[in-house]
């Protein structure tokens, strides 16, 4: 954090607005990881204003996604959805397929939090299609986890289990032990729910 604050100050003394906007976004990332939502939001908003003034669509989209994640973390799903949808429009215009998939996944989780499961399913399937085409196995597993969660929450236990098992295959392909553990945990939770 200290290094990023120094970098921001240096970019300011050089009147490098791109550098300032980028470091503000990174500072926001640090605060988000720390769970300090108000500070993260403040830095992301500052970065967003500068990036929009510079017509830097890539950085603006990144800021909007991050702002959406802050609001999601705070449980403010309406604001989260607004920022994620704005980011998605930019990502689609840039034809940035990987980022489009990630933002679609964020949108699906937000709709899930709002208990709008049809919309959650729609965006999650969109994310999964892109990730499958890109052969992004970690991303596929994340999308399949959310699909499983949606189906579990709506009582379609067969589809939930099917998607969790598909996620397990995806994480095993990339040898991701944490993802494997998370998937097995979801399967166990589903079986526990079914045995009640």
Question: What keyword list fits this structure?
Answer:
single chain, 196 residues, mainly alpha, 10 helices, elongated
Report on this model:
By secondary structure, this protein is mainly α. It contains ten helices and no strands. It starts with a helix and ends with a helix.
Termini Cα gap: 47 Å
Instruction: Indicate the structural class.
Output: mainly alpha
Give the SSE order as H and E letters: HHHHHHHHHH
Q: Helical content, roughly?
A: over 70%
Mean pLDDT: 94
The gross shape turns out to be elongated
Largest sheet: none
Number of helices: 10
Calculate Rg over CA atoms: 18 Å
Percent of residues in beta strands: under 5%
Report the strand count.
0
Q: Which parts are unreliable, with pLDDT below 50 for 5 consecutive residues or more?
A: none
Layout of helices and strands:
Elements: H1 2-13, H2 17-34, H3 37-53, H4 57-73, H5 77-94, H6 97-113, H7 117-134, H8 137-153, H9 157-173, H10 177-194
Put the structure in a nutshell.
The chain is built from ten helices and no strands.
């Amino acid at each position: 954090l200290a290094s990023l604050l120094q970098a921001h100050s240096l970019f300011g003394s050089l009147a490098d607005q791109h550098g300032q906007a980028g470091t503000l976004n990174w500072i926001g990332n640090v605060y988000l990881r720390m769970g300090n939502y108000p500070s993260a939001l403040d830095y992301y908003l500052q970065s967003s204003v500068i990036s929009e003034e510079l017509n830097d669509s890539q950085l603006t989209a990144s800021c909007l996604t991050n702002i959406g994640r802050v609001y999601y973390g705070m449980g403010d799903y309406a604001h989260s959805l607004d920022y994620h949808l704005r980011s998605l429009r930019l990502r689609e215009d840039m034809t940035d397929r990987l980022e489009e998939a990630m933002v679609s996944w964020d949108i699906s989780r937000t709709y899930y939090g709002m208990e709008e499961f049809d919309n959650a399913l729609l965006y999650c399937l969109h994310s999964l299609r892109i990730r499958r085409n890109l052969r992004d196995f970690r991303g596929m597993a994340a999308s399949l986890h959310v699909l499983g969660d949606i189906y579990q929450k709506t009582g379609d236990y067969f589809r939930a289990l099917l998607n969790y098992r598909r996620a397990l295959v995806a994480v095993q392909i990339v040898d991701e032990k944490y993802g494997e553990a998370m998937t097995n945990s979801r399967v166990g939770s589903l079986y526990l729910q079914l045995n009640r």
